[in-house]
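Review box. Two proteins, two foldings.
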Amino acid sequence: MKQRLKDAIANSKAIQNLADNPLLLTMMAILNRRQELPRDRADLYDQASRVLLYHWDVDHKRLQLPMDAIGRREKQEMLRLVAYEMQAGEEGLKGNLISAQRLTEILTDYLRNQGFSEPREKVNRLIRQLRERNFILCYRGADTYGFVHRTFLEYFCAVEIVYRFEKQRIWSFEQLRDDVFGGHWQDDTWHEVLRLICGMIDAKFAGELIQYLQEQKCNRREFLSEVPWQKGRLEPGGLSNLLLAADCVSEVSNCTAISQISNQLLQSLQKEAEIPEIRLSFACSIEIMERIARCFNGTLLWLKQQAEQSSSSFIQYGAVQAILVHYHHQPDVLVLLKQWTQHGADWGMRVGAIRAIAKDHYYTTPDILDILKERAQKDEDWGVRYAAVEAIGKYYNELPEVFYFICAILQSDPFVRINEWQDNPRKAALESLLTYYPSNPKTFEILRERATKDSDKQLREWAQGQLNMLL
């Protein structure tokens, strides 16, 4: 069961999102005892809320609930209403806030409408229970409350929207499309809610919403990078409609029902990556490659082609990273990564491959360290040497010879700064010494030497700052 939970955390971003909170990690462990954690995110969040609202009391705390206790279903319905109210507030989903007065009003009205006696008195106890026993709401000061983890805010908000559309039928599809998706697709804090909605509703409607997102237009001038070495390149916000649409595709369980729309979207994303006239920033290239790998099946061959043939170093790097994350289990991927690390014609391919083979999947493989050392010493590109030195320090610092290798890099690397934004491999080496060998007497000696004698002014100033903190 332990390994099953570890695998679930490693393979699911949704589970990772919950696992960063100790209480929620405990809650998932309880759920994991009964069954394999669901891969569908909406199912995961539903079961997580069930654990907190019922099983946490009955199974973990061994509480005997009274016959007239407010049940798990009622609590979930009330939390949906609270979440929906919060998203309509001034700060919307970003705020995760509701006043104590408004929270009390919502819960009291619900209990009264459900026929509970003395609803106001029950609400006071209920709020305390949701905070102190169920741990799903928390007090945020200034007489306000919020969800203990914003995942629950987003989940309950999405469920309430779907309930109004599918069950109550008080919302038409046009309202769902124009008001919810049309009104919020440009707001990052709403993206998780929109994705969850697409995973909950019928695939036919989800497909139409995805098509709608594809048709939206972004003012690309607003999303051109101002970073000096990327100035004028398109940042991810300029493609936010397509990136969000891809995220929504990944939520639809019946992919066959939306295959035509999904294929059109894939082609649109690939076109953005392939046309030389579209100058993508580093971040945008990575986002596109990641979406293509994660949200669409059968893209490994295309990613390999981009890694080897793209005219953009950023796209090459992004393609290699996407292959690492989503196709590392393929038997020939490590062979490819080694080949690209040593013989890639472009720095983007070599840096991407270096950072890939140094990941947990591969760094214990024989000969990887030798490959990294060779790149750190001999590669003509400063960025490749920097990545190799950084990887050696991070993953192999327990080997005695690595300390002396890093020291040698500080003496021998030929980096000469041309632009302010360049990464000096000697800095990567010095950072490794300070991070992994802080108590070694030679580390302080080398730091003092770099602070006064290094030929790179930027590194001298950085080293002096580090020295001042230690003195």
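Next protein.
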Amino acid sequence: MNAVITLMTQILSLILKFVLQWVFIKTLGAEYLGYNSVFTNILQMLNMADFGVGVAITSFLYKPISENNRKRINALMYLYRKIYTALGIFVFIVGMMILTILPWIIPNATCSNAYLRILFTINLAGTISTYFLAYNRSLLLAQQKAYYVNSVDFIVNLIVIVLQIITLFIWKSYIIYLLLSVGKNVISNYVVYSNCYKKNKFLKEETELLLVEEYRPKIWKYIKDVFISKVGAYIFYGTDNIIISIFKGPVLVGYLSNYTLVTVALQGIISQVFSALQAGLGYYLTITNDIFLKRKKVNFYFNINYIIANSCMVCCIFLFQPFINLYVGHGYLLSNITVYLLSINLYLTLMLNVPAQLFVIYKLHTYDKKIVALSAILNIVISASLVYGIGINGVLIGTFITSIIYLFSRVFIYYKIILKVSFTKFLAQFFFWIIISVATIIMLNYVDGFFPSSNWPLLLIKAMLLLCLSVLIPVVILLCGRFLQKRWT
């Protein structure tokens, strides 16, 4: 139920986002779209102040929830609330400091620096509000109630997006647009916050401080491990727009954001579905002692993850350009090389879903700190070096290289520490997946030539056909490979 409800709400939310972005471009233009994208990246950086607290608390919640140990759940949530209150204050202070360098991050803006600071401050207010209201989401998600959280988010999102579209057409005001976005965050977080206390009335009981002190050093150690991973993840996926804005200007960021709207939305949908399943996976791996059953379960997840990631990559390769052409016009198209790099980076990002969940469940972040730190530095160096010569593609190449390192290192750690088997098995599987992906692209390239996409109905028919084939071809090849493997054995 978590997966189905999450998938439905995310797809509907994606459609709403496309409509909203189209209205945004038509009423405010590409430059304000660039501002919005840069602000989003900066706020992602500020969210690193979380230090991995959310991930840490969720990891420790699985066991007491499976045992229905309310006192320990209460202690963890008490600790979570105290830490997040302090972090909210910290984020506010850092955000005020960023205001002083904002004109350097967004150079050559057509609006005044004072107006830019007002826009950023409104965005900042929305981020800070989550630290005081959103922490209870972790408990509901760990209790496998993602369906409720996502339903609330969707309903509030629907109402606010409709209001944003109306106000953009009437007043063409970016400030009103931002104020509504902040209101959306506050309202949805408050509804979830209230429901969590209603469903878990024991949270209002007196907290056993001895249990809090028992958890504090364990969580603090885990937070230190997770924090490096969060920094690395931000640098991988959250600095591209900032680097492009600094060296090439915000307008180019606005052009790229039409493409990344699709990739980020797909990442959000897939990661939300896997997050909805994470509590079930964590519960299963916690109570199951049979290592063979655990391997079988995780291998199944890896193959499902690959089929989804491959389908998204292949569809983006063939559909990006005709979609952007119909969506906002030929003038907003980027090169085909950019499309391939964006699609491959999307594939690698989605392939990290299962390793990321395993790292949370097994608390493995302590093992990859140095690799993540090195990869993050490497990403900035490569992106900043190549952006001068080849622009956007240079930044995407930096993300590609470091994503490969990030994926392989995490899977290697899982195989070595948990499964205690050779990593070469995954490498063989990964290269088999690459062969399947290449074969799928070659076959669909012939199909693509027979189907025009000069209007929305034709593009929709083409998209449905490509989606079905991009799933069917890998599934058939994997099943045939599995059959041949059994016969050979």
